[in-house]
Amino acid sequence: MAASSRAFILRHTRLRPVPGLEGIRLHLGDEALPLWHAVQVETGDPDTALPYWAFAWGGGLAIAHYLRAHSEAVAGRRVFDLASGSGLCAIAALRAGAAEVTANDIDPFSEAAIRLNAKANGVRVDFVRGDILDEEPPHAEVVLAGDCWYEAVLAQRVTPWLRRAADRGSLVLIGDPGRRYLPTEQLAELARFEVRTTTELEDLALKQGRVFELQPAPPSA
Ligand SMILES: C[S@@+](CC[C@H](N)C(=O)[O-])C[C@H]1O[C@@H](n2cnc3c(N)ncnc32)[C@H](O)[C@@H]1O
Questions:
Q1: What is the pTM of this model?
Q2: Judging by DSSP bridges, how do beta strands 171-176 and 206-214 pair with one another?
């Protein structure tokens, strides 16, 4: 982990409980826009991404609630957490008894945040940095994807990648708080939870977080 990213996160966040998920703590930011500005100054990049890693998003919260209620989905299994952000889903999977979890994100600050958050929760999360959506999905028994449907271009790449993961035999669990680009008609809904997001960027503090399974394509006749 780059020492500077770690120091930046420690300076700009506080280790706090995640609302509704007793026992999980994350290094969380206060307001997104001032923090985004601080990242722009730190990196010297005006186009740097929003600091997604500093917040618990509705989709990840839904998955974390689901894994708390259904630990059998991940217990003893190898899990991959796509677009992990803070690492919330990865940490929830380990808390639910996953054998091992690998997280992935494109944001270098996310790697540093996940390492700090994993340590704060007494778990170990492996990390793969970068965009792997043009590669074959990993051979994980479970693939988690929390809140990846907030923009069209990402959504158009994530959904087919997850379908390939399901076709290769992974259980694919999606968490979503009602984003416009999620193709719900292709998914089987498993559960709904009222989730409290930690960012003021959402229109509502309390959202309905839904968890879906993306099932493999039926065999062609
Ligand atoms: C809304 S956040 C969700 C984070 C976390 N899953 C949660 O629900 O709290 C979306 C995440 O997707 C990541 N992301 C965006 N494009 C990506 C890509 N091509 N591959 C991997 N991660 C990506 C962002 O960096 C960000 O951390």
A1: 0.96
A2: antiparallel
The finding on whether 109 has its CB within 6 A of some atom of ligand 1 is no
The number of helix segments (H) and strand segments (E) in the chain equals: 6, 9
**CA-derived radius of gyration, the chain:** 16
For residue 180, CA distances in Å to 58, 146, 147, 161, 203 come to 13, 14, 11, 19, 13
- As a whole number of Å, the end-to-end CA separation of the chain is 49
pLDDT tens digits, 53-84: 999 999 999 999 999 999 999 999 999 999 99
Q: Which atom of ligand 1 is nearest to the CA of 55?
A: 9
Ligand 1 neighbourhood includes 137 CB (under 6 angstroms): no
Pick from 158, 201, 174, 212: which is nearest to 36 by CA?
Answer: 201
